[in-house]
Amino acid sequence: MAYVRQLPRFLAAGDLLVVNTSGTIAAAVDGRRADGRPVTVHMSTPLDDGTWVAELRPGASTPGPVTDASAGEIVTLPAGARLTLRDRYPDTDAIRLWVTSVAAGGDVGGFLARHGRPVRYSYVPDPWPLSSYQSVFASHPGSAEMPSAARPFTAELVTRLVSAGVVLAPITLHAGVASLESGEAPLPERFTVPGPTARLVNMTRAAGRRVVAVGTTSTRALESAADRDGTVSASQGWTDLVLGTGRPARVVSGLISGWHDPGASHLALLHSVAGSALVNAAYSEAERAGYLWHEFGDSCLLLPPIPPDRSPAAPGHSR
To answer: What are phi and psi of 157, to 5 degrees?
Structure first.
């Protein structure tokens, strides 16, 4: 067993940590259906036309979505705001998410800041303030659920990493609600890979060093910005990339992550980076040791061997 604070032990000068700067928003808000039944609305993702992807739940931290809603239904929100269900998302076969329009007398983000709270599921028994759902890197609000792999990082740890010669570079990927059904593909998400980060990634790989993504969100953003040979370019927009056995990682050679449920798309992403043998061994040990799952749980560091053609040639640099 090791601790996140010991991360500098496992990395070397010249390795690159890629972190997600997305901050968590207060995406859960109380509502009431036309027949008076209360619901919790999870505002997931703003779309380009001003509508929002949203999920209805029967109550705060209740397992499972509302399944008897229909297009045209109106949900009353605090302060006289209204949410109208328009179409199922991402297609007509979906039962969990809706494209919605929100009449809130102004900006929806501002409305959520005043009346919302963090999304909380049944495995988190007590409410926590929005500040508890932010990582030390959070600077661009936009995620409905916390990009939680960086949650254990502290300013002190970042300082120690930089002092040891480990380089940090930012991306931004705004995560929507992650309560996907088993086997359900990840939804499209908005991301940005800045030019300086793309250049650092390419230089790190050319030098035979590791590109370690802090979280599945950082992995998805980097891989979405990569071409077939793994060269990363500055990119922004929407990604629908699904990493797994059919599309292994081309750029990321290490990963820091939380623990994901069997059948989850995030778990397939871990396999695409680290390989099944390492991931399965890590999960077996996590279950044996009683590690905790989900956003307030424990962390996993996956560092598969660097391929021989990518290893540093200089003496004393092999690992």
So the answer is: -65, -40
Whether residue 184 has pLDDT greater than 80: no
Compute CA 83 distance to the chain's CA centroid, rounded to the nearest angstrom: 26
Determine phi and psi for 148, rounding to 5 degrees: -90, -5
Amino acid at 185: A
Domain boundaries, the chain: 4-24+128-310, 28-115
Q: What is the CATH number of domain 4-24+128-310?
A: 3.40.1780.10
Residue type for 263, please? G
Phi, psi for residue 263 in degrees, rounded to 5 = 90, -10
Picking from 58, 13, 63, the residue whose alpha carbon sits closest to that of residue 40 is: 58
pLDDT in tens, 241-260: 999 888 999 999 999 999 87
Over residues 52-103, the pLDDT tens digits come to 999 999 976 567 889 999 999 999 999 999 999 999 999 888 889 999 999 9
Q: What is the CA radius of gyration of the chain?
A: 20
Q: Which stretch of DSSP H or E encloses residue 113?
A: helix 108-115
Among 151, 122, 124, 126, smallest CA distance to 136 is for 151
Evaluate whether 46 touches 64 at the Cβ level (below 8 Å): no
pTM, entire model: 0.91
Query: Is 268 within 8 Å of 280 (Cβ atoms)?
Result: no
174-241-277-251 Cα dihedral, nearest 10 degrees: -80
- State residue 314's pLDDT score: 38
CA angle 206, 209, 214 (to 5 degrees): 115
Q: How far apart are CA 166 and CA 161, in angstroms?
A: 5
DSSP string, 10-57: T--TT-EEEEE-EEEP--EEEEE-TTS-EEEEEEEEE-TTS-EEEEEE
